[in-house]
Amino acid sequence: MRLTLTEEQRALRESARRVLADTYTFTDRRRIAAGGGFDPEVWARFADLGWLALPLPEEHGGLGCGPVEVAVLAEELGRAAVLERWIACVVLAGGVIAALGTREQVAALLPPMAEGTSRPALAHIERGDALMQVASTAHPVAGGWEVTGHKALVLDGHAADILLVTAQTEKGLGVFILHPGAEGLTLSPVDTIDGGKAADLVLDRVQAERLGAGDATEAVLACLDRANAAQCADAVGAMAALLDATTAYTKERVQFGQPLAKFQALRHRMAEMAVKVEEARGAALLAALSAEVDAETRMRGVSGARAKIGRLSRHVAQEAIQLHGAMGFSEEMPVGTWFKRLYTFENLWGSTALHLKRYAGVITRREVLEGSLLRPGEASDETLNLTMSADDAAFRDDVRDFLKKHLPEETKRAERLNPSFLADPRIGLPWQAMLAQKGWAAPSWPTEHGGPGWTLTQRYIFDQESERAGEPHFRGASLKMIAPVLMRFGTEAQKAFYLPRILSGQDLWAQGYSEPGSGSDLASLSMRAVRDGDHYVLNGSKIWSTLGHHATRMFALVRTDDTGRKQQGITFLLIDMKAPGITLKPIISICGTHEFNQVFFDDVRVPVADRVGEEGQGWTIAKYLLEFERGGSFAGGLLRALYARLHRMADAPGPDGTRALDDPLFVARFAEIGTDIDANDMLELTALSAVQSGGNPGSVPSSVMKIERSRIRQAITELGAQILGPEALRWYPERPLHDLPPQDAVAEDRLVAPAVYLNARSQSIFGGSNEIQLEIIARELLG
């Protein structure tokens, strides 16, 4: 698997951005729009740069580049709002010629196209929102074919010297070559909303040559998908340009004596725009990597991205106009140009709604929605790919086999009936012990501390398969938070004593960060720790201590100094929960579960030997730990497991005998969530790939993933609760729910669904609320 651009791809992006910034300003664009939407000199420049040859076969004058290179260039064309229809001509029409043409036709048509001396256009779309509904007809005649019908909005058709027209024959769809001046052809130029031009065609028994032979349906559809994948990247470029323009404007525009970028409400709206751009970039990459695979995978990747980016781009475009105020509504500002371009994107080669429907046709099949985006196969590390190596595929099979044989059914049932985000330790710890015997209990740990030493890809696969199998969620504060801190900051004695106990499950840890009244302002904590010889004496309380009533230990931030900056007086301690002076008050969640606690400390003595790091170093250690709480793990497997449970409920008849999957409104919302999960997976895999190649995904992608994971989980649980209708009113106060008499899986999914929905509200709060994540993004964008 590789998802980071190669040096050549980065060079293409940088050179394209530089050339377009220098030669295609908005002044140039307005001139081109006024002159008919096409500039031959610009097209010739594109030819000189090799852009017209980019995706064409090398044997016919092309460069033989793939969908990723196409996407790289398309994003820059979208960023510059280029009017000339590079995708429609080179990717779509050129692709149709390469896919269907005879050897002689390809040799005659493609080299001039690569040189910029010929500009073909595909005339395919007719009236209505459809990809493949063609009513035009073609009949053989002496010396060729006659084509009759209508074609609408042929992009740059007014500037084309060759028209490729799709029409129905007695043996399926055909593509026919004709010239704009042909007898019986009426070509009417049309202005398009994005400032360009198109043409409407009326064909009355026009003489034409057939492109290739046989039914062209699948080839045309595949070319449309490749063009749509490129359009996704173009849209990302426009979205990124809108975000840049908006942040720049709000930094300069002064209101009430300060720049607009200082107002938190506006900062967070721009941060939301950045979230949408990052998601769109992940979806566009998936589309590019799906453009040349089997038809079902291609449809899922491309139409899912089209539907997802359609929604996202609309939000970004509308927000850009709003945040520019009245100036955003003026033609003087370029934001309106990108707004129109994205509106065009939503209605070109299938609307957002059409692509969502197309995606739904694939994702509502259970074997598809449960599957990972990673695919077994061979791929070069020199190209971007979603391919699993043979070793990784074998590893996946080993994990799958182990889970099938060893994960107890009663453990899976207990997890299915668990409304909390962590398993009851009485369920999770026995499973941890079983995995510890296998050496798999701590996937992220290095081998020197008892971990398996897996690669990031293997950890990702293990997570996916574990969630798919239904394992309990037990890797909380112990394995994922305090353990990395001890490995980084702990003494050798602390590592030797605590890490084996964490791995075996002998110690279960709770977190002692939050305090009453502090909220997300962690640095304002006030719990005192006063040095008394070889001990600290603790007084105060901690709140929201997850599973504190089961914990044997707690790691906590305490205040050891009130002088100087408040962050400087914080120290990190390890606390025995059985120590005298500790009392707990249960906090019952709105889902009915006892998962949180308030913990009170009254003259509790903690040995200085249980201090991690130096006194006053707690803030540095806390920030390090937060990297693991807010990130450092994969959510895609869990989201897919929850999504599969939602599908299971939706596929089963309800009390009235109907299935939710028969409701088009439900299916549309279900499919939207599927596109969200796919985009999140791409963000995770891209971050994974960046780390594996020695890079750093950065703070913005990490915060974006934290935000989107919470929203997706909330959306899944909300839709699951909505399936129940009036049955959602039934409440089962028993805890744990797995003590109730067994029922079939769907009945138990329905039973727990309301509590799961209620509990999911916590996802956007803990680990740094979504508002905190938006502020992190805003600081990166705006300072």
Characterise this structure.
- By secondary structure, this protein is α+β, with helices and mostly antiparallel strands.
- Among the domains are: 223-376, Up-down Bundle (Butyryl-CoA Dehydrogenase, subunit A, domain 3), CATH 1.20.140.10; 491-630, Butyryl-CoA Dehydrogenase, subunit A, domain 2; 636-782, Butyryl-CoA Dehydrogenase, subunit A, domain 3 (Up-down Bundle), CATH 1.20.140.10.
- The chain contains 24 helices and 19 strands.
- Strands 1, 2, 3, 4, 5, 6 and 7 form a seven-stranded mixed sheet that branches. It has a four-stranded mixed sheet with strand order 12-15-16-19. A four-stranded antiparallel sheet has the order 13-14-18-17, with no helix packed on it.
- The model has no long low-confidence stretch (mean pLDDT 95).
Topology:
Blueprint: H1 7-23, H2 26-34, H3 40-49, H4 67-79, H5 86-100, H6 103-115, E1 120-123, E2 137-141, E3 144-155, E4 162-169, E5 172-178, E6 185-191, E7 197-210, H7 217-252, E8 254-255, E9 258-259, H8 264-290, H9 295-324, H10 335-345, H11 352-363, H12 366-369, E10 375-376, E11 387-388, H13 390-406, H14 409-416, H15 425-438, H16 456-469, H17 477-489, H18 492-504, E12 509-512, E13 528-532, E14 535-543, E15 553-559, E16 570-576, E17 582-588, E18 594-607, E19 611-612, H19 618-630, H20 636-651, H21 664-692, H22 699-723, H23 745-759, H24 770-782
Parallel strand pairs: 1-4, 10-11, 12-15
Antiparallel strand pairs: 2-3, 3-7, 4-5, 5-7, 6-7, 8-9, 13-14, 14-18, 15-16, 16-19, 17-18
